[in-house]
Amino acid sequence: MRILRFLLLTVPLAVGGQTLTPAWVVLGEQGQGHTGAQVRIVVNQPQDCPRIQVDGHEQPMSLRQPVPVGLRPACEFTLPANAKRASVNSQTLHLPHKNPLTVIALGDTGCRVKGARVQGCNDPAIWPFAQVAGNAAMQNPDLVIHVGDYLYREDMCPADAQDECGGNPSGDNWETWNADFFAPAAKLLAAAPWAFSRGNHEDCNRAWRGWFYYLDPRPFAKSETCEKYSAPYVIKLGKFEVAMLDSAAVKEDETEETQVTEYTKQLTDIAARLTTQHAWLVDHHPFWAFKSGGKSDERRREDKEDKEDEPRSISAPLEAAWDRAVPKGIDLVLSGHIHLFELLSFAAGSKRSIRPVQIVAGDGGTDLAEPIKASVNGIDVHGIKVVASESQRQFGYTALNRAGKKDQRWRAVLKNRERVGLLACAIKNATALCGLPAEDIIYVSR
Fold first, then answer.
1. How far apart are CA 44 and CA 263, in angstroms?
2. Residue 341: left if φ>0, alpha if ψ -120 to 50, beta else—which one?
3. Which of 14, 71, 103, 340 has the fewest CB atoms within 10 Å, measured from its CB?
């Protein structure tokens, strides 16, 4: 029965037997005469690229080339800046929304199968990404942000775990991309434009071909050479700006000078492109967050006085790069990598730099990490103390909303897999106020 459920979940969406996914909108950087938004769809064969209707005019979609070995072809179309309506195969597309009011953030969504570590991909109670994505789609978002790590089926299912993952594909190929992302994300993929962040599971040792071909918003020109550090870019939606940083290669516990130099340069570049004082920065690795100390069960039993692992902060190269670049105009950093929800707000710090609120939204479906302390208030993170914090170890997504397009006060609500609000924080001017009722709209003023 579990295998049957898996097969039903991953049946491709088909129109005339040609298309394998719904059409989706990926956001990139604006260019002359266009919004930076592309419509994409995966098809069975190169000749299957459909036509797109834009404001009553039908035009062909182009094949995204070259098609990497093992992947199914993708078709694309760059939306003109003045596009008002668009559809593909009678599917109405959700075009970029200026000054979005509702944003969904989620990440770390694939089902883990690596060596002896098997999550149970054939059981939606154990791997609930399809449920999480479907309920997130019901929020009618203006924008979806994925903070990275899409593919976790790295190995074939072990012989002794067929009930958990029998019939699963593995590796950087279409079958795995469909099973781990496109099929379970289908409803949410079609519900709003997306901003995609590259995770370490899409680095040059893993699923980089599928990442650059299907999800990266820029032209695809290379199928055999991996780009370790891709350039940052800024998505502009009216006066709302989201800076995208590729942290796939980060060595999180080691302050490697080469990486500090690279990310200092990228953060400086981002700061020069921003035109707002309230931008968001999106990457995969948190700049300031915590992971469990990682003690084994045996060590916990031996250490009777220390009943809880002390959390450890991560992403040393990004912390150091931030201090060198001193970027301004960023209120919020959205990341993943740690398979939990975390929110951290910091003290004022130095006069040169205000540290943004850090949200970790790594609870989208992959096996959850060990919990950290419910509160890390007062702990020093790279020279500045935490003044407000929240953490939850449940599958779900983060919904961020605001009352109006000119309002810079955002309300972040953690929703579980059943769309129930678990906690809420208000964010404004790089400061968060937590402990709010999860269903009541309350903003912080500053």
1. 39
2. beta
3. 14
Give the tens place of pLDDT for each residue, 2-55: 333 333 333 344 444 599 999 999 999 987 666 789 999 999 999 999 999 999
Q: Name which of 99, 17, 83 is nearest 50 in CA terms.
A: 17
Write the CB contacts of 357 (distance below 8 Å, at least 6 apart in sequence). Answer: 331, 332, 333, 343, 344, 345, 346, 427, 430, 431, 432
What pTM was computed for the model?
A: 0.91
| Cα dihedral 419→420→422→428 (10° resolution) | 60
- Smallest CA-to-CA distance from 219 within 45, 369, 12, 36 is with 36
* Distance set, CA 353 to CA 200, 348, 416 (Å): 28, 8, 34
CA distance 30 to 12: 32
| The Cα angle at residue 228 between residues 226 and 231, in degrees rounded to 5 | 105
- For 116-131, the DSSP string reads TEE--TT-TTTS-HHH
The tokens describing 217, both together, are 């918003």
Report d(CA 260, CA 125) in Å as an integer.
40
Q: Check: CB of residue 61 under 8 Å from CB of residue 75.
A: yes
Q: According to the model, what pLDDT value does residue 382 have?
A: 85
DSSP label at 200?
A: G
Domain residue limits, the chain: 1-225, 228-295+307-392+431-446
| CA neighbor of 102 nearest in space, from 345, 411, 435, 442 | 411
From residue 355, give the alpha-carbon distance in Å to each of 18, 30, 323. Answer: 48, 27, 10
Q: pLDDT at residue 1 above 60?
A: no
The answer to whether the beta carbons of residues 324 and 264 sit under 8 Å apart is yes
Please say if the pLDDT value at position 246 is more than 90.
Answer: yes
For the four alpha carbons of 382, 384, 385 and 386, in that order, the dihedral sign comes to: negative
Q: Which residue has the tokens 């407000």?
A: 388
d(CA 433, CA 411): 9
Nearest Cα residue to 241 out of 76, 84, 103: 103
Reported as half-sphere exposure (CB side, CA atoms, 13 A), residue 364 has a value of: 34
**Rounded to 5°, angle at Cα 400 from 398 and 404:** 170
